[in-house]
């Protein structure tokens, strides 16, 4: 099952790429994603008893399932996969989002966006980078679907002329599956070298998604920034991993964690290197500046995967890898991490209050939410770790939903400017309702998924007492800021009279509702019944 | 005086390569076939010798001048294989071309087994001297390339010889094993000067700073097949020479000075190579400058060779060099395959056959096979999955550097990030660029062969890591 969950998206990506000009390529991608989700969903069956035992340098018993093949023992690389209660929810989330994104493509749910959204050079207001994008002069030649995609789009629109929706190229589906493959591999990797390779493997497909299918005005700058930040982070992280491997003499993740991590001499060094690497990905203030650009420029499905999956790689790595293999270093560095996280929460909240563009606002709000996750981790108590993991999963459901909605809205109105939107409540009541639901979930309304993570973060920080009380108060104020900017966004978009941009737009279609429904259901479920998930985290290896 | 027995089996690959060279001189129009078959046989012989027990010959006391262990024979097989690849992408050439190429390959094979300074330097010269002729095309640019190469090469050879002389003066022997045992009690100043001069001279072959400046100029002006050879086999020669000298000779007796010299060469190469590559607008100089940075990555693990992880460090350096030359060979072979026929026949005026990066736009559609090999190689040079060959190389050296010299690991990491800034646009141009098709791909078999080789080391890196594990 473990192998199926990982291998299916990989072969799916290859096959979809190979047959990208056929009409069935999209559905092949959906099939692969669905099969992968099914395989992940079956993983809890027959899981182990949760007793962590080391036999012969290898760990057994605690993982639900594990498998191991030698690949390159000279560099400590084994193809070792394992799953437990910490990694499984994130893998399931990845598989779910992968399936939804593939479905989104296959159904052409955003048909109207296949034409370029904005031709003028992007500014902050239209979702571009904050600096003048000096390398966009070549953009007019880059418009339209990409090179191999051109033929595919023609073929697809030819054979689906009756459907009337120009679907994005199947290559995009292939790239989505590639991201999904690499991300699931990251969550399942039980070998530090394999973890690093999978972590790097996410980069190129995501870069291609932003670069080829992103907003034409801003994508080159955003894609390059994303790539450079990510590679820089992951190489620093790799250095930390190799120090740990050299110190412990094994690259078996489970064995290192159960063995108590690296020696006390290098613990702080290892943790610092790893934390810098993961902080870029998470992202933690002040290493976050790639995120708003990348999220804003990426196509809807790209933003969804970025927010739902890629940020989770950073926090998962921080909690599981960095915290697991260097617990002493984590404890030593916790105050620094906590202060940075709290600053991130506050700064993101203040920035969001003044951002004029919808997608950029949602992207920046991720910085704040991830700040909560990191703060909870830094608190280091049991409640804190669980809050971090829970907030992680909740953010992975809510923010993708927001991005889906923002994408749908942008596709209809051709603008993401808060100033030129309004009256959505009257023009498209279902869309406005869902947007309201997602915004409320994001600001942490009790009863929805966002609440538990943030509430317990504040609780965990308070538990530590002393100066942590100030951080808890600051984080709580940050949550208040989140409420303020999300309600401001709702007021601008949903309320007020109908403006020209929203005049006559269609409401959410059945197809769109079908794609969004699992996210809504998940948000409600986690909000009402957080217990089972928290129990899963409890039996995981940390 | 007793004549010692010579282990002819250990020398078999060398005999085959040298015989091939002689044969190629006299077989006229069959020279190309002769040379390719002969060198393939040499490669196979090297693999067979490597499969058996380690052999050594030409002994003086306990020290041998020629070792045929796994690492040496693996490198020898790689030299022969790369030469065959270069021959396969060379097209129609006059008879002496094949002779010179085979002589150069024979030099490489000798180099792989050489374990004393004289053999090493003679082998390196045998590898280099035929290239003086080969890099020179008719016309002004060719003359410029030839003269630059000759002057740089002779200057560096003289430097290396001077270094070897100092080391001989200090240790009283030229055997690497002898240096290891004698240098410890030798004059430290003499040893340090010798090590610095010798390594600086050898760094020329690897195109490492400070003797790097010839590389972009010569590679740009040389015929593309020869540029392929310079960027792959010839660089492997430099890497092997430095690794042998540092690991077998200097690490035990002159660890401090060697470590400092190598670290300085490495950091300078990484900085200069990456910064130089950032501003290039033409394909071959970009690859050449980035090759300088890669030379720095090859050298980086050698800086810690004197510490406890010495053997791993030397193995990692050799592994990186092997992965790197395979990727370079892939990139240059693919580039050779798609260059316009007019350029191949010398009918295009202007500098360089590689052309501007922009000319590669649309390659993905007009010539998918070379384009995919080129893309794979470029992504591999950037060290990213899915081209795992490059990732494994990076993992191998970072694994050695991280525990013993974190600062050097961070420099390597920073260099790789800079590298991405020029590799990604190059990959983007090939994959997505829209432009006139630059002509059909040729030499399909050769390009497919190097592509398969890259794929093989991606799936089974252990094959490379096994033979690059140097033994004492």
Automatic annotation (TrEMBL), chain A:
The EC number(s) this enzyme carries: 1.6.5.-
Membrane topology: Multi-pass membrane protein
UniProt keyword list: Membrane, Oxidoreductase, Transmembrane, Transmembrane helix
Annotated transmembrane regions: 28-45, 169-187, 193-210, 222-244, 256-280, 301-321, 333-354, 361-381, 387-409, 430-453, 465-487
InterPro entries: NADH_Q_OxRdtase_chainM/4 (IPR010227), NADH_UbQ_OxRdtase (IPR003918), ND/Mrp_TM (IPR001750)
NADH:quinone oxidoreductase/Mrp antiporter transmembrane domain segment(s): 189-472
Record keyword Magnesium present: no
GO process annotations (BP): ATP synthesis coupled electron transport; electron transport coupled proton transport
Chief location: membrane
Family membership noted in the UniProt record: Belongs to the complex I subunit 4 family.
Name of the protein: NADH-quinone oxidoreductase subunit M
Organism this protein belongs to: Glycomyces lechevalierae
UniProtKB/TrEMBL annotation, chain B:
Recorded topology in the membrane: Multi-pass membrane protein
Residues of the signal peptide: none
Keywords: Membrane, Transmembrane, Transmembrane helix
Short name of any one Pfam family annotated for the protein: Proton_antipo_M
Subcellular location, record wording: Endomembrane system; Membrane
InterPro entries per UniProt: cNMP-bd_dom (IPR000595), ND/Mrp_TM (IPR001750)
Domain Cyclic nucleotide-binding: 324-373
Gene Ontology cellular component terms for the protein in this record: endomembrane system; membrane
Transmembrane spans: 6-26, 33-51, 71-89, 96-112, 118-135, 147-169, 189-214, 226-247, 259-279, 286-310, 316-338, 373-393, 405-423, 443-464
Domain of life the protein comes from: Bacteria
Name the UniProt record assigns to this protein: NADH-quinone oxidoreductase subunit N
């Amino acid at each position: 099952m473990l192998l199926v969950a990982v291998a299916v998206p990989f072969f799916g990506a290859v096959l979809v790429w190979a047959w990208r000009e056929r009409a069935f390529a999209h559905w092949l991608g959906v099939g692969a994603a669905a099969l992968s989700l099914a395989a992940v969903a079956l993983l809890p069956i027959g899981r182990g008893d949760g007793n962590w035992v080391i036999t012969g340098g290898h760990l057994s018993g605690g993982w639900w399932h594990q498998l191991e093949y030698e690949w390159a023992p000279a560099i400590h690389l084994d193809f070792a996969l394992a799953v437990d209660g910490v990694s499984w929810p994130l893998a399931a989330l990845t598989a779910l989002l992968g399936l939804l994104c593939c479905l989104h493509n296959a159904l052409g749910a955003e048909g109207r966006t296949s034409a370029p959204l904005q031709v003028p050079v992007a500014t902050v207001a239209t979702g571009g980078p904050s600096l003048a994008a000096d390398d966009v002069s070549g953009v007019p030649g880059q418009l339209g679907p990409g090179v191999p995609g051109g033929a595919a789009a023609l073929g697809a629109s030819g054979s689906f002329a009756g459907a009337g929706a120009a679907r994005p190229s199947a290559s995009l589906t292939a790239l989505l599956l590639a991201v999904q493959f690499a991300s699931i591999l990251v969550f399942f990797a039980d070998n530090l070298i394999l973890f690093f390779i999978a972590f790097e493997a996410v980069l190129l497909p995501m870069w291609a998604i932003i670069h080829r299918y992103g907003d034409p005005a801003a994508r080159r700058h955003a894609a390059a920034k994303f790539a450079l930040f990510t590679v820089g982070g992951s190489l620093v992280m790799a250095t930390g991993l190799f120090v740990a491997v050299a110190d412990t003499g094994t690259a078996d993740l489970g064995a290192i964690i159960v063995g108590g991590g690296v020696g006390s001499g290098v613990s702080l060094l290892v943790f610092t290197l790893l934390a810098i690497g993961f902080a870029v990905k998470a992202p933690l203030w002040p290493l976050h500046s790639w995120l708003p650009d990348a999220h804003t420029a990426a196509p809807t499905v790209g933003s969804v995967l970025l927010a739902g999956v890629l940020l989770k790689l950073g926090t998962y790595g921080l909690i599981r890898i960095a915290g697991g293999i260097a617990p002493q270093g984590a404890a030593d560095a916790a105050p620094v991490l906590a202060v940075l996280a709290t600053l991130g929460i506050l700064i993101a909240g203040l920035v969001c209050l003044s951002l004029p563009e919808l997608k950029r606002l949602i992207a920046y709000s991720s910085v704040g939410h991830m700040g909560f996750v990191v703060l909870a981790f830094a608190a280091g108590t049991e409640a804190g770790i669980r809050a971090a993991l829970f907030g992680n999963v909740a953010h992975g459901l809510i923010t993708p939903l927001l991005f889906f909605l923002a994408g749908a809205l942008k596709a209809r109105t051709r603008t993401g400017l808060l100033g030129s939107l309004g009256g959505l409540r009257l023009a498209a009541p279902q869309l406005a309702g869902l947007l309201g639901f997602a915004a409320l979930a994001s600001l942490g309304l009790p009863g929805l998924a966002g609440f538990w993570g943030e509430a317990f973060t504040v609780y965990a920080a308070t538990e530590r007492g002393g100066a942590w009380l100030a951080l808890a108060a600051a984080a709580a104020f940050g949550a208040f800021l989140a409420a303020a900017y999300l309600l401001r966004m709702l007021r601008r978009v949903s309320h007020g009279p109908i403006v020209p941009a929203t005049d006559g737009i269609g409401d959410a279609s059945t197809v769109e509702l079908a794609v969004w429904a699992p996210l809504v259901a998940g948000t409600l479920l986690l909000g009402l019944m957080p217990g089972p998930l928290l129990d899963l985290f409890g039996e995981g290896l940390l | 005086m007793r004549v010692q027995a010579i282990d002819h089996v250990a020398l078999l690959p060398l005999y085959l390569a040298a015989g091939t060279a002689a044969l190629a001189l006299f077989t006229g129009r069959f020279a190309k076939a002769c040379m390719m078959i002969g060198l393939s046989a040499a490669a196979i012989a090297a693999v067979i010798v490597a499969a058996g027990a380690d052999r050594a010959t030409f002994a003086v006391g306990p020290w041998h001048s020629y070792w045929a262990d796994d690492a040496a024979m693996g490198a020898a097989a790689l030299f022969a294989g790369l030469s065959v690849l270069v021959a396969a992408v060379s097209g129609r050439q006059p008879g002496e071309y094949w002779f010179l190429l085979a002589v150069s390959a024979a030099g490489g094979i000798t180099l792989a087994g050489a374990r004393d300074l004289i053999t090493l330097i003679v082998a390196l010269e045998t590898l280099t001297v035929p290239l003086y002729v080969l890099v020179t095309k008719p016309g002004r640019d060719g003359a410029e390339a030839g003269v630059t190469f000759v002057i740089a090469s002779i200057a560096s050879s003289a430097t290396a010889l001077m270094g070897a002389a100092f080391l001989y003066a200090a240790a009283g022997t030229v055997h690497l094993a002898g240096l290891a045992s004698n240098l410890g009690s030798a004059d430290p100043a003499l040893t340090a000067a010798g090590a610095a001069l010798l390594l600086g001279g050898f760094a020329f072959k690897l195109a490492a700073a400070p003797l790097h400046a010839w590389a972009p100029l010569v590679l740009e002006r040389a015929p593309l097949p020869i540029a392929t050879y310079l960027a792959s086999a010839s660089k492997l020669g430099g890497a092997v020479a430095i690794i042998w000298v540092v690991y077998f000779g200097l690490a035990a007796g002159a660890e401090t000075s060697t470590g400092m010299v190598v670290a300085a060469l490495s950091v300078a190469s990484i900085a200069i190579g990456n910064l130089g590559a950032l501003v290039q607008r033409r394909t071959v100089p970009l690859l050449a400058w980035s090759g300088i940075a890669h030379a720095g990555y090859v050298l980086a693990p050698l800086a810690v060779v004197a510490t406890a992880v010495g053997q791993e460090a030397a193995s990692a350096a050799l592994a990186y060099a092997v992965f790197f030359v395979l990727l370079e060979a892939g990139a240059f072979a693919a580039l050779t395959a798609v260059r316009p026929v007019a350029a191949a026949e010398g009918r295009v005026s202007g500098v360089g056959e590689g052309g501007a990066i922009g000319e590669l736009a649309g390659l993905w559609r007009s010539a998918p096979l070379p384009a995919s090999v080129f893309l794979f190689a470029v992504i591999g040079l950037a060290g990213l999955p899915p081209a795992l060959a490059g990732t494994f190389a990076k993992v191998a050296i970072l694994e050695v550097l991280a525990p013993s010299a974190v600062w050097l690991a961070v420099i390597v990491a920073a260099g790789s990030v800079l590298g991405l800034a020029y590799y990604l646009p190059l990959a983007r141009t090939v994959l997505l660029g829209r432009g006139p098709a630059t002509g059909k791909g040729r030499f399909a078999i050769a390009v497919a062969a190097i592509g398969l080789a890259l794929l093989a080391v991606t799936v089974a890196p252990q094959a490379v890591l096994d033979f690059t594990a140097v033994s004492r």
